Structure formats: structure tokens, C-alpha cells
């Protein structure tokens, strides 16, 4: 394995003159960060060139944004089992290029992550690669077959931060009830892919005029909220902690908003696809825009933006799903669903800031503190003194055109192919080590 | 000859993938040329050498006897060489991908590929990977342009026009590419389309395509000029779209009594193959006064001759075997 890391010693390093975004403190101010060994030892306005200790490597951010490294709570690494699409190493490089320092990986690998050995395998491989910190979801059901629950307690102890059945809906009410109920004793979280499975069977896209014109089977957007409504009752019944992944419809936002008001322990996330694109992206049978859940109407897209702005949607995850050419270059109905997302997560999410829907700090919160809090990973997504120096430095304004063939990811299936966007990662730092530097700031540039 | 204006002076597209995107003038151009062949096909001198030296490959991923024969005959009457490739669905899954097959055929430099495929959009995908003319012979539930054109030619021969007609398309709209292509064509030419079917066979938001929707057959057929029946595609149905064939015929099958609601000179059409006693009663299907079902088949050859001629000529002008 080629070492992906440029070890720069373990001495002191300072990043100064940055727009410092601290989501935990909710501050957005000029300042810097001082790193010693792998930890943050100082942070804030007082970290300036004049106040630095001796023998300190200095990076002048020149006004660029400095934030905690992003925490991506939903991604497929396709490793083990589908290494032709992505490996933990290529995923790590891709994440580094996207400013992501912590990844929570879905368990739908081959073999499925449904036992302790699987969780440990992922952790060991990720440590060896030395890029983003990778945590695993444990499967809710053995083999993600929707039958019996896994050894959730042991998985949790081994490091599984939450539980889900990958890209499958936990369809059985009994299974979900048992999982929610059982996991309360260690305060575990269950993540649901909310899509009523019978209604969505065989569907290639969102139902409606476009699906009818294209002659493709559609799934009603109501299939999502229907699943959510049933699951909310199970949360009431069990007192468990349930999180809905990649919410994509306005009805879902509305129902979750009300449930939260009633005090239910439910949370949700969405992915950039669902607030930056609508179903028109699949016109011309564009399989890169075939996603699960499918892209929805423009009204739904706007409702997702509103749900993010008012806090109903807690977090933003990439929903990174690498698929090779042979899985995508097929007639639409046969093509695999999913899009890569690591390297577009930050710039696409920054559109919410550029378009005036959210403040810069709120945008960063949804990508750092919020997901880290949901999966209870301590020391991730924060600038607190004493925590690991996992950081991203980015230029929020730099324009560029998305070209998946420049991606570090092994797969190039981005629905944002060709999109003009703003915001570029300049440096990614993990445990004080620089794991990515944009050519514009790299040494010798 | 039409309120929609004269025929276009040429067909400007490299392929014929669907009715969507065609102008009234382009449709009229194809129909006028097809009318020429329809007349020629009724004489002893049916063949020409307009496409002599051209190679046409019929690539069919779905079983078809009628359409395949029609395309084969059309190409042969124009003097082209024809190869038929019928690929069963199961062997496709085992073997080569659609793109690989397309690339392989493309390497043999055909002038036109006539493609039928079970997936919507598959023919378009294929057309992006080859440099010959591609003619869509039906893709999934998306489009079947030559069927809509042959229907239009049949209607025009009887009614003398394609505008201001009330056309009822009845039956399995949900699974029908024929319905979609016909809606697009008839709307483009200025006729009004109604869809008549049980609610489970009406696709979501199809009213946005500019059609009126009826569930009651007698209401839907009232005063219409054309009754276009569709084949109930039981083989494409997952789950219960209709309770039984018996019930379907009772409410939505075309018989004399229901037909009485249409105009006295209303034409009966069906793209075939018919399920007699399911969507149509034999008595009306075989009524020589009203049914033009056999003429539709005849016009099929003429329309396909016209389409092949226009496409291959375009391809030749664009540099042919480049």
C-alpha cells in the first residue's frame, strides 16, 4: 500500500489569519489554531503570528475558512467485497480531497458488517491507510436480510456507532420495534432508509409527469413519508432513538417537524443531491442521476432547503455510493442507483450559504458538530482544545467546474458532473498531519 | 393540406428515436413519403433500388413477429441488405451488454440499426454509441414512433386530415409505448386525445401531456372520430392492475354497444396483436365497414420504407461509413 500520508513531524504547527468557524462555540471570527503533536492546543483570536511559540511551522490562511474536519455520517466505501468500485484507501483519498476527516461507513459490504470481526476489520484497515477516521455502522439484521437482530450490544462495544440495514428499509415492524427497544440499554441509534418497500419495488425514479413521459416506473414521494409515519409510532412505543437517512420530500420534513415538536427522539439527515437537484436531472435517461431515494420535484427540493434552514433536518451527509461504469452505462431501469459524494459535499452544501438560505456557521454545523453528536463520536467535528487536530481549510468563494474524472474516488458517478460551483478545499489535516493540499497551496506551487 | 402547414423539405435528425421533438412539418414529410410507398405497394412494381448497397440491421431484444417482418420487408423493398438479430432476454442477461452489442454491430458499418428493447431509453443509449442511423422500433413503455406514424397515415387516408379529430385511446395506457407516441403525434398535429382506462392503467400525471382522462368507456367514446384500442399487456404487469380479464372486457372491452357512443363513422384501430374477447370483441374487430386494423398493418410497411429512406439518405449525406 502506498503511504498516503506526508508525515511532517510531530512538532508544533499553527494556522493563522483564518476565518475561524467553530460550530461548538457558534463563533465565526478571524483567528488561528495551534497544533502540537496531533492535538489542538490553542484556538481563537489570540492565535496570531506574534503570539506563537518558537520552532512552529506557520501556515498563513490568508483569510480562508478554517473549520473542524467534516464528519460524513453516511457513506459506502464498498470495501470489503466491491473493491473494483472503491476501497478504504481510495475512499480515504477522496474524503481527504473533500475535507472529510471522519466517515461512518454503511454495513452493506460483502461480507455484511453484522459481527464484531467486521467492525474491527474496517477500523484496522482504516488505521493502516491513515486517512479519514472510519467508523462502521453495524447491521440491524443478520446479513441485512430483515430477519433477526444482530448482536447489537457487542457490535456497539466493538465500535459500531449506530445501526442500519444499509440501503434497505427495515421493513418489518417487529424487527424495527425490537431493534429500537433493545438498543435503548446502551443508547444506540437506529438509522432507517425510509421507503415503503412494496410501493417502491421496481421503481426507477420519482413518479409523476416526467416518469410517465420517459416511460419509467415511478415511486410516489408518499412512499417515504408513509414509512416515516409508521416508524414514528414505533419510536413512541419503544422510546428508542431513530434517525431517518437522506430525507427527500416535503411531506417527510413536515411530519418530522411535528414529531420533534411532540418531543419524540427522532432526527434526520439529507444529502446534497436532494437540496441541489430535482428530478429533471434524470431527463434523457441520465443514469448518474439515478439515486435512492430518487430525485424529487422542485417543490420537494425547496422543502428540503427549508427543512435544513429551520433545523428540522439535523445533518447533511454525502450518501457517497461509488458505482463503476458497467453498473451505470445501462438502460435506466437496469442501472444501479447512487452517486459519489465526498468531493462535492462541501462545495454543494456551500450553495446553501451562497444562495442566502443559511449562515456559514449553520452550514458547517450540519457537516460537523451535528452528525458527530448524532453518532456520539467524541472529539470529532470540534475545535475544542485537547481534541484531535482534524481540520479543513477552504476557500468558500473559489469557482470551479465539477469534473468527476479529476476525483480521487475510484468511481466517477457524480450527478453533479459538469456543474459550476463555488468553494474549494485547500487543506485537510488529520491528527495534525496534512493529508490533502490543493495544488494552489501545495509546497512549491 | 393541413392546418399545421406544409411538409418540411427535409428530415433534419440523424435518428428516429421518438415522436417527441418532431415538428408537424417533419411528420407530414414522413407521411407524404409513406403515402407514396403505400400506393406503390399496391402495384405489381413494389421494389426499388433506392437503398441498394445499404445494410440495415434489425436488432430485436423483445419477441416480435409483426414489427420485425414489417421492417424487414420495408428494407428489402428498397433494395437494402437486411440482417435480423433477435436476442432473447435471458441470453442478454448472461452475455454481452447492450453497449457492447452496439459497438460490435457498429464496427460492421451498417447504415441503419432498427432496435427494439424492453427498457425505456435503451434505444437512445444505443444511438449515442454508434455512428449509423438508429430507428426506434419500440423501447419499454417509452415510444414506438413508426406505430404512431402508421396510425396517423391510416387516419389521414380515411379522414383526410390529422387535426380537429377526437381520438379515444383505450386500455392499457400504463404499459403502452404506442399510447405515448400517439398522444405526442396527435397533439402535435392538432387533434384532441382522450384516454379511457381503469384508474390502475392510467399513469401518474399523464394529464400533463395534454389529454383528457375517462374511466367510463361509454362516456369516453362519446362523439369520437377514432377509437384506438390497446393490447392488454398482461406479461408486463406486476401485481393486480385488473381483477380479471372477464371484468376487464365487461367494463373496458370494445363491443357494439360501447361503440354506439362514438360517431357513426368512427374508425376502429388496434396496433396488434389483438386479444380477442379481452380488449376487443371479434365482431367489431372484423367489421370491414369500421375496422381499419388490417390497413394499419399495410401502412406499417409504407411508413417504415419512408423512415428508412429518409434516415439512410441523411446518413449517406453525412459521410456514410465514416
TrEMBL record, chain A:
One of its GO terms (biological process) is purine nucleobase catabolic process. Its cofactor is Zn(2+). Residues 65-252 form the Dihydroorotase catalytic domain. It holds the Pfam family DHOase. Pathway: Pyrimidine metabolism; UMP biosynthesis via de novo pathway; (S)-dihydroorotate from bicarbonate: step 3/3. InterPro entries: DHOase, DHOase/Allantoinase_Hydrolase, DHOase_cat, Metal-dep_hydrolase_composite, Metal_Hydrolase. The active site is at residue 319. Belongs to the metallo-dependent hydrolases superfamily. DHOase family. Class I DHOase subfamily. This is Dihydroorotase.
Automatic annotation (TrEMBL), chain B:
PROSITE patterns: CARBAMOYLTRANSFERASE (PS00097). The keyword Transferase applies. One of its GO terms (cellular component) is cytosol. This is Aspartate carbamoyltransferase. L-aspartate binds at residues 94, 177, 231. It catalyses: carbamoyl phosphate + L-aspartate = N-carbamoyl-L-aspartate + phosphate + H(+). GO terms for biological process: 'de novo' pyrimidine nucleobase biosynthetic process; 'de novo' UMP biosynthetic process; amino acid metabolic process.
Amino acid at each position: 500500500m502506498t503511504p498516503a500520508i506526508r508525515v511532517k513531524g510531530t512538532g508544533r504547527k499553527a494556522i493563522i489569519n483564518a476565518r475561524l468557524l467553530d460550530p461548538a462555540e457558534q463563533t465565526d471570527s478571524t483567528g488561528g489554531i495551534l497544533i502540537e503533536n496531533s492535538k489542538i492546543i490553542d484556538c481563537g483570536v489570540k492565535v496570531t503570528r506574534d503570539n506563537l511559540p518558537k520552532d512552529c511551522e506557520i501556515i498563513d490562511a490568508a483569510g480562508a475558512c478554517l473549520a473542524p474536519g467534516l464528519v460524513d455520517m453516511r457513506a459506502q466505501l464498498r470495501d470489503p467485497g466491491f473493491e473494483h468500485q472503491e476501497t478504504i484507501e481510495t475512499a480515504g483519498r477522496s474524503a481527504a480531497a473533500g475535507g472529510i476527516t471522519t466517515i461512518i461507513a454503511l454495513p452493506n459490504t460483502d461480507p455484511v458488517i453484522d459481527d464484531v470481526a467486521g467492525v474491527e476489520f474496517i477500523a484496522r484497515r482504516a488505521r493502516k491507510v491513515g486517512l479519514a477516521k472510519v467508523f462502521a455502522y453495524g447491521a440491524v439484521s443478520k446479513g441485512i436480510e430483515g430477519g433477526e437482530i444482530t448482536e447489537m450490544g457487542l457490535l456497539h462495544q466493538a465500535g459500531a456507532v449506530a445501526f442500519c440495514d444499509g440501503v434497505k428499509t427495515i421493513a418489518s415492524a417487529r424487527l424495527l420495534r425490537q431493534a429500537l427497544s433493545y438498543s435503548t440499554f446502551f443508547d444506540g441509534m437506529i438509522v432507517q432508509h425510509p421507503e415503503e418497500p412494496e410501493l417502491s419495488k421496481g421503481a426507477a425514479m420519482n413518479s409523476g409527469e416526467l416518469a410517465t413521459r420517459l416511460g419509467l416506473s415511478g415511486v410516489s414521494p408518499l412512499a417515504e413519508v408513509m414509512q416515516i409515519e409508521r416508524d414514528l409510532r414505533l419510536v413512541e412505543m419503544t422510546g428508542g432513538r431513530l434517525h431517518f437517512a437522506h430525507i427527500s420530500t416535503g411531506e417527510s420534513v413536515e411530519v418530522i417537524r411535528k414529531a420533534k415538536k411532540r418531543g419524540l427522539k427522532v432526527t434526520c439527515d439529507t444529502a446534497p443531491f436532494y437540496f441541489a437537484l430535482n428530478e429533471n436531472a434524470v431527463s434523457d435517461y441520465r443514469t448518474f442521476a439515478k439515486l435512492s431515494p430518487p430525485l424529487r420535484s422542485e417543490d420537494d427540493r425547496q422543502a428540503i432547503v427549508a427543512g435544513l434552514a429551520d433545523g428540522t433536518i439535523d445533518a447533511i451527509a454525502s450518501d457517497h455510493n461509488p458505482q463503476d461504469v458497467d453498473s451505470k452505462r445501462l438502460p435506466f431501469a437496469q442501472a444501479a442507483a447512487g452517486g459519489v459524494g465526498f468531493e462535492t459535499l462541501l462545495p454543494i452544501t456551500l450553495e446553501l450559504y451562497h444562495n442566502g438560505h443559511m449562515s456559514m456557521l449553520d452550514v458547517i454545523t450540519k457537516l460537523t458538530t451535528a452528525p458527530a453528536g448524532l453518532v456520539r463520536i467524541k472529539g470529532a467535528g470540534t475545535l475544542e482544545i485537547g481534541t484531535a487536530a482534524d481540520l479543513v481549510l477552504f476557500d468558500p468563494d473559489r469557482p470551479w467546474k465539477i469534473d468527476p474524472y479529476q476525483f480521487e474516488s475510484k468511481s466517477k458517478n457524480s450527478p453533479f458532473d459538469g456543474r459550476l460551483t463555488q468553494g474549494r478545499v485547500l487543506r485537510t489535516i488529520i491528527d495534525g498531519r496534512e493529508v490533502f493540499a490543493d495544488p494552489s497551496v501545495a509546497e512549491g506551487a | 393540406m393541413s392546418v399545421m402547414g406544409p411538409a418540411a423539405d427535409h428530415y433534419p435528425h440523424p435518428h428516429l428515436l421518438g415522436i417527441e421533438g418532431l415538428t408537424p412539418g417533419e411528420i407530414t414529410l414522413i407521411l407524404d413519403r409513406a403515402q407514396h410507398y403505400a400506393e406503390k405497394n399496391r402495384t405489381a412494381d413494389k421494389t426499388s433500388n433506392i437503398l441498394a448497397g445499404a445494410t440495415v440491421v434489425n436488432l430485436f431484444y423483445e419477441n416480435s413477429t409483426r414489427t420485425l417482418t414489417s421492417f424487414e420487408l420495408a428494407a428489402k423493398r428498397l433494395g437494402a441488405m437486411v440482417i435480423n438479430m433477435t436476442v432473447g432476454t435471458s441470453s442478454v442477461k448472461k452475455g454481452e451488454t447492450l453497449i457492447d452489442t452496439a459497438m460490435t454491430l457498429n464496427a460492421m458499418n451498417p447504415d441503419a440499426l432498427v432496435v427494439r428493447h424492453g427498457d425505456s431509453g435503451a434505444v437512445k443509449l444505443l444511438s449515442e454509441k454508434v455512428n449509423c442511423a438508429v430507428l426506434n422500433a419500440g423501447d419499454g413503455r417509452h415510444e414506438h414512433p413508426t406505430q404512431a406514424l402508421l396510425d396517423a397515415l391510416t387516419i389521414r387516408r380515411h379522414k383526410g386530415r390529422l387535426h380537429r379529430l377526437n381520438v379515444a385511446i383505450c386500455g392499457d395506457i400504463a404499459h403502452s409505448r404506442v399510447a405515448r407516441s400517439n398522444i405526442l403525434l396527435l397533439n402535435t398535429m392538432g387533434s384532441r386525445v382522450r384516454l379511457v382506462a381503469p384508474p390502475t392503467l392510467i399513469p401518474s400525471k399523464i394529464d400533463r401531456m395534454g389529454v383528457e382522462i375517462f374511466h367510463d368507456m361509454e362516456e369516453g367514446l362519446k362523439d369520437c372520430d377514432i377509437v384506438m384500442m390497446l393490447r392488454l399487456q398482461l406479461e408486463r404487469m406486476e401485481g393486480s392492475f385488473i381483477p380479471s380479464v372477464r371484468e376487464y372486457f365487461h367494463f373496458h372491452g370494445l363491443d357494439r354497444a360501447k361503440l354506439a357512443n362514438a360517431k357513426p363513422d368512427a374508425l376502429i384501430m388496434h396496433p396488434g396483436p389483438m386479444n380477442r374477447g379481452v380488449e376487443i370483441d371479434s365482431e367489431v374487430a372484423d367489421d370491414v365497414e369500421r375496422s381499419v386494423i388490417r390497413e394499419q398493418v399495410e401502412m406499417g410497411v409504407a411508413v417504415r420504407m419512408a423512415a428508412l429512406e429518409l434516415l439512410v439518405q441523411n446518413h449517406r449525406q453525412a459521410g456514410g461509413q465514416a
